[in-house]
Known about the structure:
The two termini are about 30 Å apart. The protein is α/β, with parallel strands linked by helices. Helices cover about 30% and strands about 20% of the residues. The strands form four sheets. Strands 5-4-1-6-12-7-13 form a seven-stranded mixed sheet, with helices on both faces. Strands 2-3 form a two-stranded antiparallel ribbon.
Amino acid sequence: xxxxxxxxxxxxxxxxxxxxxxxxxxxxxxxxxxxxxxxxxxxxxxxxxxxxxxxxxxxxxxxxxxxxxxxxxxxxxxxxxxxxxxxxxxxxxxxxxxxxxxxxxxxxxxxxxxxxxxxxxxxxxxxxxxxxxxxxxxxxxxxxxxxxxxxxxxxxxxxxxxxxxxxxxxxxxxxxxxxxxxxxxxxxxxxxxxxxxxxxxxxxxxxxxxxxxxxxxxxxxxxxxxxxxxxxxxxxxxxxxxxxxxxxxxxxxxxxxxxxxxxxxxxxxxxx
Length: 272
């Protein structure tokens, strides 16, 4: 119900700021934030997605590159310069959040120019409604067996109350009785209806985000290279909201071509 506008409190009693960490370097797509998508830089497209969410009060790009800041400001959005020494986007997020007055900080990935506003709203509303969780995130159904087996697709398993039990690059929950061929799970023995893919959107209580950035990496985090495990290992709760509009991150040229084609098709159907 939280994802439906009719269920929202008509009087908004909190402040939520979306921050988009953005850096110029990218191994597979150099200058990725500034790549053109239907006439606008990718990072600007992401800003537009975040700004269209009803729960968001401000949208800010946190970057260490003046070219990115200039492109964002030219389109009427805010940008703040942050340190070039950050190892993670969350560290960059925390630096920017430290200067802001807000109840919630929304970490929006800078390579998702098709991010549905409803996904942002669902994650924010979930954390607003759950005072015991320190952050919220989103998940989606996995429909392809290759994605279930792919270590680059992060999986999440949940408790009955919607909080995260664990995140992993491994295939979880692992179907013990499924047949394997040379150690590879066979498709016909796997029920993907119980499998969920973790997506990269996070909503943090601002105070916890600043605390989180001061914590040292945890053992499981180091093994899996997943920052969210630091939160679970410290005993905090993460609320996970399942969304039904898929997100799509851009990591390769094929991804970029796909998104460009989708936006071109949309413009043909709904010309300005």
